[in-house]
Design goal:
Blueprint: H1 3-11, H2 13-16, H3 20-34, H4 37-45, H5 52-74, E1 80-82, H6 86-95, H7 102-121, H8 124-130, H9 137-156, E2 159-162, E3 166-169, H10 175-192, H11 198-212, H12 237-243, H13 246-270, H14 283-300, E4 305-307, H15 311-316, H16 322-342, H17 347-360, H18 373-389, H19 392-409, H20 418-434
Antiparallel strand pairs: 1-4, 2-3
Helix pairs in contact: 3-16, 4-5, 5-14, 5-16, 7-12, 7-13, 7-14, 9-13, 9-17, 9-18, 10-11, 10-17, 11-17, 13-19, 18-19, 19-20
């Protein structure tokens, strides 16, 4: 049997009605929408004193490793990279706020990844996913859709910060904002016309318009793969254990776990990859890839690695198998050698893709029974709190806790759902604890 045929059978091309062309374009689309992390992550972590060139190489390396591992063993179109939010917590709270050396903080990241592996082998992470009521799945997907659409609106300049109203309409005549609006229209028209690869064509078309109007300002910077040695294997495990930084490890664990769960639920539901009983097949492999990528990231010199919601862009482009993630990973690996070139992708070109992907993720909200208050109220909380708290983990926690409390106080609680109520208790403890800081 030819290798190509064996690969198609392994990834389930026929069953999922996909092709090499579709999967490759989807992988490229995912990469383009999340390539910003190659520069944003080093910019944040370098404030801890970590060399920016080293973190750039580490970011590309662990994103490549995690995405390829996810695609090859779990067969899902999920790409991984150092998580936004977690890198800010690493920098501003742990290192700058608590005065802990970045080497020790990397040791805490390693410990969280190792604990993840133990939880995966013990089946605990899988049980946590199973504890999420399937009635909230659509709300999680919709909330994440609003979240990434909000990110897109902000990156495009269509929405800007406002002291009086929190956010307000930006200057639509600003060149980059006008180009983003052009990109929105272009992608929308291509999608209505059912043009294949509409998302990728829209992003590249917006970039081309930016070049024509001289709005892409790119300056190559010196960069070498050998820079990795300045952070690789510099983690301080002994220091992490000596400091007893249980709280830090817990936050890395908690945020990564529930960001990951929210992303998994949203992407698999949107791609119709969930089983009929609302479970996610091969979940242990997904978590194994995620935990392994975090461990490799800590060894290379970066903060916690997690699944990226930008994978939804690849799903909307038709990606259904692990080939999408593998292509994304290979592009991240290539970016190790050409990282300065990736800086040519401006945010005004990727923002329209995020906005419209967010819009497409709202289609599942029709599955929610809005006439049943015990479902509608937690769904509403989940849907709104994800974008308003700027955190998938916090929004999911809020929705699950409200669902559990309503079940308890209305006499609907059942003993078989004990994991749900345990989670709610942990969330309440976390919210009350964090409110003191």
């Amino acid at each position: 049997m030819p290798l190509r045929t064996r690969l198609e059978r392994y990834f389930g091309f026929a069953h999922l009605h996909t092709s090499w062309r579709t999967e490759i374009l989807a992988g490229l689309t995912t990469f383009i929408t999340m390539a910003y992390i190659i520069f944003v992550n080093p910019a944040i972590l370098s404030q801890t004193g970590m060399p920016i060139a080293s973190v750039t190489a580490a970011t590309c390396l662990c994103a490549a490793f995690g995405s390829i591992l996810m695609g090859s063993i779990a067969n899902y179109p999920l790409a991984l990279a150092p998580g936004m939010g977690l890198n800010a917590y690493f920098t501003y709270t742990v290192v700058k706020g608590m005065g802990i050396p970045w080497q020790t903080a990397l040791g805490a990241v390693f410990l969280s990844g190792f604990i993840f592996l133990l939880l995966t082998y013990a089946g605990i992470r899988q049980r946590l996913v199973a504890a999420i009521p399937h009635q909230l799945h659509a709300a999680v997907g919709g909330g994440i859709g609003l979240f990434i659409a909000f990110v897109g609106f902000r990156n495009s300049g269509i929405i800007v910060s406002s002291e009086a109203h929190t956010v307000t309409l930006g200057n639509l005549r600003a060149p980059e904002t006008a180009l983003a609006i052009f990109g929105l229209l272009l992608i929308a028209v291509l999608q209505v016309l059912q043009v294949r690869a509409f998302m990728l064509i829209g992003v590249l078309g917006t970039m081309l318009a930016g070049l024509v109007f001289h709005q892409i300002h790119w300056q190559p910077t010196p960069y070498s793969l050998t820079a990795l040695h300045a952070t690789a294997f510099h983690l301080d495990l002994r220091g992490a254990l000596h400091h007893g930084i249980i709280e830090i490890v817990f936050v890395f664990l908690f945020v990564d776990l529930f960001d990951n769960i929210g992303t998994l639920v949203a992407v698999t539901e949107r791609a119709n990859l969930m089983a009929p009983d609302h479970s996610i097949p091969r979940l242990n492999r997904i978590f194994f890839a995620d935990a392994s990528a975090t461990i490799v990231g800590s060894l290379a010199g970066t903060s916690t690695v997690t699944s990226y919601i930008e994978s939804s862009a690849g799903v909307e482009a038709g990606g259904r198998t692990g080939v999408t993630a593998i292509v994304t990973g290979l592009l991240f690996f290539l970016a190790i050698f050409i990282a300065p070139l990736i800086g040519a992708i401006p945010t005004f070109a990727t923002a329209p893709a995020l906005i419209l992907v967010g819009a497409l993720m709202l289609t599942g909200l029709g599955k929610i029974d809005w006439h049943e208050p015990h479902i509608a109220i937690p769904s509403f909380f989940t849907l709104t709190m994800i974008p308003l708290t700027w955190s998938i983990a916090d929004g999911l926690s809020f929705g699950l806790t409200s669902y559990a409390l309503i079940q308890i106080f209305t006499g609907r609680a059942q003993r078989k759902d004990w994991m749900l109520y345990l989670l709610a208790a942990l969330f309440l403890f976390r919210f009350l604890y964090l409110s003191r800081h």
